[in-house]
Amino acid sequence: MNRDWPLTGRQLLVRCGIEFWLPLGLLGVGFWLISQVWTERYLQGADRAIAPLTLTPNTAVQDHGLLSARAVLNSDLPFTRVEVIVVKPVPRTLQFLLPLDTPSEIEAELGNRLKVSPDLIRRLMRYENASPAPDAP
User: Fold this and answer.
1) Which phi and psi (to 5°) does residue 96 adopt?
2) Which residues of 38-67 are buried (b: 16+ CB within 10 A; e: fewer)?
3) By residue range, what is the domain housing residue 31?
4) Spacing of C-alpha 133 from chain mean position
5) CA 13, 14, 18, 20 torsion: positive or negative?
6) CB 69 within 8 A of CB 81
7) Is residue 4 part of a domain?
8) In percent, how much of the chain has pLDDT > 90?
9) Are residues 83 and 33 part of one domain?
10) CB under 8 Å to 108, separation ≥6 — which residues?
11) What is the Cα–Cα distance from 76 to 130, expressed in whole angstroms?
């Protein structure tokens, strides 16, 4: 007759191998819970730290319907090519060839032609220097 039959709790754990596997499983669950709490805390905290981006449109520019202006200056040519993008009443691009070469003269002339202040043109204007084409050999 087997004398080990009424097994105690400790003997049952040893015989089934649970004595090793139970603490290992509990340790894994503990790491999972700690990492879950840590992740929730730091990832949700990042959302509160970032301020939302707000864009305020320039109402003075919108009232006149001007979006942008670009002037290409070329020292080899006697004129400046200017492109103005207008969005009112219909989106379109206006192109001008002005016999001027200084920014203040260009801004004054564009302001006169578009019936807006030169200061408004100055805020929108982007200037580019056109490089002359290299001489062919």
Assistant:
1) -130, 145
2) eeeeeeeeeeeeeeeeeeeeeeebeebebe
3) 9-48
4) 35
5) positive
6) no
7) no
8) 30
9) no
10) 118
11) 9
> What are the C-alpha distances in Å from 65 to residues 8, 43, 88, 109, 111?
89, 43, 5, 18, 13
State whether the Cα torsion 57-61-67-71 is positive or negative: negative
How large is the average pLDDT for residues 8-30? 79
Residue-wise pLDDT for 72-123, tens only, equals 988 888 889 999 998 888 889 999 999 988 899 999 999 999 898 899 899 8
Tokens 């492109």 sit at which residue?
83
Domain count for the chain: 2
Read off the pTM. Answer: 0.52
State the SS3 of the chain: CCCCCCCCHHHHHHHHCHHHHHHHHHHHHHHHHHHHHHHHHHHHHHHHHCCCCCCCCCHHHHHHCEEEEEEEECCCCCCEEEEEEECCCCCEEEEEEECCCCHHHHHHHHHHHHCCCHHHHHHHEEEEECCCCCCCC
- For residue 32, the model assigns a pLDDT of 95
Tokens of 1: 């007759």
